[in-house]
Structure formats: structure tokens, C-alpha cells
Protein: Dihydrolipoamide acetyltransferase component of pyruvate dehydrogenase complex
Organism: Pseudomonas fluorescens
Amino acid sequence: MGTHVIKMPDIGEGIAEVELSQWHVKVGDLVVEDQVLADVMTDKAMVDIPSPVHGKVIALGGQPGEVMAVGSVLISIEVEGAGNLKESDKPAPVAAKETPVATKVEAVVESKPAPAAPRPAAAVCQGPVVARQADERPLASPAVRKHALDLGIQLRLVRGSGPAGRVLHEDLEAYLAQGQSNASAPVAAAYAQRHDEEQIQVIGMRRKIAQRMQDATQRAAHFSYVEEIDVTAIEELRAHLNEKHGASRGKLTLLPFLVRALVVALRDFPQMNARYDDEAQVITRLGAVHVGVATQSDVGLMVPVVRHAEARSLWDSAAEISRLATAARNGKASRDELSGSTITLTSLGALGGIVSTPVLNLPEVAIVGVNKIVERPMVVKGQVVIRKMMNLSSSFDHRVVDGMDAALFIQAIRGLLEQPATLFVE
């Protein structure tokens, strides 16, 4: 038997160190070739580290949240044969780090295990209810806690018959059988004092998001501008196109129309499609429109990029937005797909609220935020009519974008969306 040492690979683009985000294996696990061992986080994306060999994990080179240098020992695997371990490759012992343990609340959702064999009736506690303190946490499995929640029983009132007073499923049934009223339990629980705490490590994607947001707000001179838009006409056009072509070309959301509006408006406002290098004091205006589309994923906010939006049709943009969003949510978006945007579009969809203040995606100088569509009575040509209204809440870098230019840019987008035929007039 030998040892195969896997070192932190060089991911490219001059990256000297990366953050170890998550292990998918532990010491003692058997792994096969191409199995994902760990996720590491660069400045742009999450990268999978696969195993090049079959074997057994014998040592891990770091803890989640640790920043590791390229070339440092990531993991050691016992393999058949000689392996590749050299004396210089032997990993230094890694001190175990104390990871804050989250204090779970009682409403933990977990599948209830198969019922155990019935216990003798004498073994089930038939004593009086227990008067525990509101902040005293009785011993019980997550499944029992979920069962108690479903039954409306406050666990601190139930005497446990298990080891060390642990509350069992049978104790819940006995509590109900004793005729204790469960009607007031939910009310009592709603007003009970709580003293639980939960500590969550800020690592991986969440750490990168925090760093980028802090950097953006500290370095850029943000200002926001909000404009109200009547989207009745473009929503009618979208419904018509979906009815006519949805089955063959796919359904259109509002996003590809917004991407098209950005492309057209940027022809007259090229200063918005730019990146600002504040260290070199250089503004780079780009002809290509690479639209970042802010996407929420399980690991946090990601911004996949629709490249060359200026050369895409509505359906092409829609398909690319859908593809990228799926890749981002599944953690499969590549570094190239998550970098290189020139302007960003962000939307909370139905949760978009009335007004928002988006944070710039540096080094970009503009971000366009979409709020939700609502029906409101509006005065049109002296008549009160119901129209579909939506706000654009957008932010700009005041170091390089003047307030008047920002207002005119958003008003240009407004004109395009309110008269949707102009989106396609060359």
C-alpha cells in the first residue's frame, strides 16, 4: 500500500490561494476516481476538486473556511501500489478547530423513524407533567421534537421515560392519554421565553459575497435613481408571443425584454457599459454588452453573465438566462460564466417590493434593479384606467456617472419598455 497526496491545484489566472469551502469526504472514506473530494472557493466561483485515484482517505489538509495556498497538501489517500508520497509531501498535522455548534430550536424538521417495537405499558411514564423552566431544553431526538410540534405539545411539559429523562414517542402518546389539553399548548409556546442562539461560520460563497459587498460600498460612491414604468403594453406583447410561439420557442419572462432594452439604451449611453479601475484611474467603455443577471442560489447570490447580449434575440437571451440560472443554482456555473460582466440586471421577481437600492457589482458603474409589477389606477388621457406598473430602482457609481446621465439612461429604458415596438427598430 502507498499514499497518494493531492495538492491544492493551480486554478489559473494568477490565483495564489483559495478558500477550502466544503469537504465531501472524511477520514476513513473509500473514494473512486473522479469522485468530488472538496469544494474550493476562488474570487469568482466554486470549483470542485476530484480524486485522480481510487483509495481510502487517511488525512485531510485543512478545515472548511481555511485559506490554503496553491501547492499545499489538500488530502492524502491510501492507494494500492507505491503512491506518490515523498518525504517533503508529508502533511503537517492539522490542529482540530472548534466549529461553533448551532443550537437547534425545537421546530426541527426531520423524517420520523420507523416505529420501534412497543414498550411494556409499565415502562411508559404515567407520572404527572413536568414543570421545567421555559429555557430548559428537554432531551429528545429531532423526530420526537417534530412529532411534538405536530401534536401541539410543549416538550418541557412532558416527563421522559428514556435514558437520562429523554422524551420518547411513547411519552407523547402517554401525555395525550392522560387527558392533558393540547389546545393551550401552542398558545403557551407562542409566548414562552426563548434563549437559544445560533452561530454560523461565514465561509465559502457567503464570505466572498460579504467581502465583495463591503468592498463595493466602501470604494464606490453609490447613488440610486427610481423611475416608474407602465409595463402594460410590453406585458401584452409578452403574453401574445408566448401564446403564439411558447410551445416551439419557449416561454418568455420579462427579463429578456429588459436585456434588450439595456442593449438599445446603451447605444446612446455608452458610459454606463463600462468598468472603472479606480487604482489606475482608468474607465474602460466596452462595445460588447455582457449582462450580469443576479441569481439567488443555495450558497448565496451569484451573477452569471449573458455574453454579447447585443447579438441575441429575445428567445436566445431567454434560453441563455435560463441555462445560466440553472447552472448557478446547481453550483455548476464555471468561472467564465460568472465573470466578465459589463452591467448587471437584478430582480427579486414577485418579491421585488416598491423600491430597492442595489449594490454595484464592481468594477461596473451601473446596476439596474427591477421591482415587482402591480396593477394600479392611473390617469391616462384624462381617464382613470387600471395599468400594470413597475419601478426600476437602479444604482450608479457617482465617481464616473453624473446624476443627469443616470436619470436620462433609465428614462430611455422606460420609453423603450412603454413603447415595445421601439425595442426592435434599428
